[in-house]
Amino acid sequence: MESAGILWLKGKLRRFPFFFNLYKNYIGIKRYLFLNPWYLRWGKRNAKYIYKPVLSYLEIDIVSHCNLRCNGCSHFSPVADQWFADVYVYEKDMKRLSALFSNIEAIRFLGGEPLLHPEIEKFMHITREVFRNANIAIATNGFLLYSLKESFWETCRKNQIKLNWSVYPPLFNKENEILKWVQAKGIIIYSDKQEKFRAVLNTKGDSVPSKAFEFCRSTAFVPYLFSGKVYICSRPVVIKSFNKKFGTNIPESGFIDIHDSSINGWDILISISIPGETCRFCITSKYKYPWRESSNTMSDWSIPENVLQCKSQTI
What we know:
The protein contains 11 helices and 12 strands.
């Protein structure tokens, strides 16, 4: 997942293939350079002599549950227990990150549905206070927008918080109406129609971690903060809901403790630049299926066996 401004730019550039390809190459080269092992090791060796590093992007779940039950939800919200992030833990984590990084360029609140959190405005205030130059956005399915209090919109305006709206089929015919209504409140909102969800799991656990990691990083860079720890992505954390529901034992490990006094920002960048044990259970090829409500079965998150066999035969 990417910041609101990036999503808007990508949407515009897709209309012009030549410029879109230039953009993709630029982003790819930038990520390669700033997450290159040689560069990270150099930064680690010289940390006391140079500026703190920059983290380009960070995702944060503030709730685990959702008001929708989307088949293939990458955060497993249809089978997740209700959970709300603690404001005080979050504030402590953000202040620690500000001591480790000179800036976090983009911060995105996710869930579940983050608008379900009764204290979401506090999270918005804290984030802007700590990271004044960050691009801050809230990802939402849009179903709760009309029910929000005016104080929410005022907090968005005051703290320059944008909305990333994933528009699912039930709201396709209301997209323009809702966009105009939100924009009239002085809020920047970007919409992205989602007719399909991507399979995310290889439940056999026989993927080559480096290959799965490389495949994921070819599509997104999504480091994830949860309770004082930074992960390469959300999967090692949110997979606990899948494990609990289906009795699986997919690894929930692979993080760095940001409150460890012996580390610096370079250590975090290094830790999120290598695959973890959970990667063995991630797919290494793309497969999508039409959006629908979850049936709460394991197959909601996996590539069908017959498709998987066809893919393996063509490799």
